[in-house]
Amino acid sequence: MVVGESMHRQTLVRVGFIVILGVSWAFPAWAGVPTDKVKETADKIIAIVSDPSLKDPAQSKQRRERIRRTVDELCDWEEMSRRSLGRHWAQRTDQEKKEFVLLFGQLLERTYIDKVEGYSGEKVNYLGERIDGDYAEVDVKFVTNKNTEIPVIYRMRAKDQKWWVYDMVIEGVSLVNNYRTQFSDIMAKSSFEGLMKKLREKSAE
Amino acid sequence: MKRIGLVFVIAILCFVSLEAESSGQSTATDAPKNGFGAQGVELASIQLASLKEASAEEEETEAVESSGETVPDPLEPMNRAFFEFNDRLYFWMLKPVATGYKTVVPEEARMCVRNFFHNLSFPVRFVNNLLQGKFFGAFEETCGFLVNSAVGLGGLADIATAVELKRHEEDLGQTLAVYGSGPAFYINWPFFGPSTLRDTFGMAGDIFLDPLTYLGDFWYAPYSRGLNVVNETSLRIGDYESLKKAALDPYVALRDAYYQNRLSKIKE
After folding, report:
1. B150: pLDDT confidence band, cut at 50, 70 and 90?
2. Which residues of A, range 47-86, sit inside 8 Å of B by Cβ?
3. Are A158 and A31 spatial neighbours (Cβ–Cβ below 8 Å)?
4. Taking Cα atoms as reference points, which of A97, A149, A165, A155 lies closest to residue A131?
5. Interface ipTM
6. Which residues are bridge partners to A167 per DSSP?
């Protein structure tokens, strides 16, 4: 009787152990849920752009700075740069990579901030997510007040125990693919230096 | 409001199924009767399954290195010239006209104009859904058209979206792609903008399915299409500007955005 019970308990413990192991393997709990990360950032940004105390044009700089800091917590600029340069990335020196990430990140950030500054009550619907190891996709639908639906997919990667966005697919158009096509076209016609020159001009605009 | 719309849709569904049963002789393009809804659902679930597979595959390759497909552009010098032309056309003519129109016509009215033209082009979507074997899509588009035409005052109000009838935007370019045609090469038309050889044939064919082509006298179509373009532009002022602002080469950025967007529409 006693022996049987302890055997039973042992089996239970073993099964429990396997189950816990299985679950922790399937869901990397440390990284949290990708959708939550996107939602958290989107909510913060909506709060900033709807904040009446920041609406004043005099506050514009501070407002942009706060959006910038929030976006920095979501986007992996280096990963975006690496993927946008594609096979050219490996051929660059560390110095070149650093400058490229800085300039390209600034361009993306500015584009993004311009977009969200025009926020006028668009609704954000979270439709679902797919996780595959360290990679995830979060499906979002923005509904504008003109009733237009804009489907957006956030492509994310787990790094340093967090989920980071490395690409956004807006109405089927991947941001990274779009820039990669532009970059490789520019580099085919001139050079990496030519691309950097264009990037510098763009950030000085 | 929503409930009334829903009741109406259900009534139409009943009417449609009764009609299909009573009229024994249906035309060749009609979907097989009785199995109408069931077949649609089946098709939808098959599509969903294949979509899931596709996305899983995509993620695998994504993990290695997302390989960018690009559209061939042998006519680039000509296309770039037309791009410049369209750019000027937009900033010097279309945008000022649309801005003036926007100040005169309130947004609600412009939304109605958009809805009206969208509803009117129903035959294009209906036929192309059928040609691609998307019977449920054709069915849902028909419901949307009937609801908007009857309840939505001839299409001025988009009741279909309000009662959650989905849109199935299909055109002949996509149909040709489903039948196995590649894009051939990129063409940036003056006035019409980004296209490919395949999509140009598609656009030309779709004109024959567009009721605007047949309504009224000869001048009716160009005038109404002009109104449609100005109206659409007035609802999208700023989109092209932000594309240009974000791009290092706006011509390539637009070409790639067009191509990627078409690929995703074909896959749907």
Report:
1. very high
2. 83, 86
3. yes
4. A155
5. 0.81
6. A155
Q: Which of B172, B127, B132, B171 is nearest to B145 (CA)?
A: B127
Let me know: does B139 contact B162? Beta carbons within 8 Å.
Answer: no
Across the strands, what pairs with B194?
B188
Helix, strand, or coil (residue B210):
coil
What is the three-class DSSP state of A126? Answer: strand
Angle at CA of residue B108, ends B103 and B112, nearest 5° = 115
Buried b (16+ CB within 10 A) or exposed e, A22-45: eeeeeeeeebeebbebbeebbebb
Residue whose structure tokens are 């990679």:
A135
- How many Å lie between the alpha carbon of A40 and the closest alpha carbon of chain B? 24
**CB-based contact A42:A124 (threshold 8 Å):** yes
Report the half-sphere exposure of B254 (CA within 13 A, side-chain side). Answer: 26
Q: Do B261 and A171 touch (CB under 8 A)?
A: yes
In Å, how far are B24, B36, B39, B64, B140 from B21, measured between CA atoms?
6, 11, 16, 54, 19
CB of B221 closer than 8 Å to CB of A171? no
- Shortest distance between the Cα of A15 and any Cα of chain B, in A, equals 30
Residues 6 or more apart whose Cβ sits within 8 Å of residue A40: none
Check if the beta carbon of residue B99 is closer than 8 Å to that of residue B234: yes
| β strands within chain A, DSSP E | 123-132, 135-143, 149-159, 162-170, 173-174
d(CA B33, CA B14): 13
Of the listed ranges B151-160, B180-189, B194-203, the one predicted with least confidence:
B151-160
Strand partners, B195: B187
B148 and B142 in contact (C-beta within 8 Å)? no
In whole angstroms, what is the distance from residue A139 CA to residue B167 CA?
18
Structure tokens at B38: 């069931």
Instruction: Name chain B contacts of A155, Cβ cutoff 8 Å.
Output: 62
CA distances from A71 to A1, A105, A164, A186 (A): 62, 11, 10, 28
Residue B264 to residue A173, Cβ atoms within 8 A: yes
Is this structure's pTM higher than 0.80?
no
Return d(Cα B118, Cα B158) in angstroms, integer.
9
- In angstroms, how far is CA B162 from the centroid of its own chain? 19
pLDDT interval class at B94 (50, 70, 90): very high
Is there a contact between A154 and A40 (Cβ–Cβ < 8 Å)? no
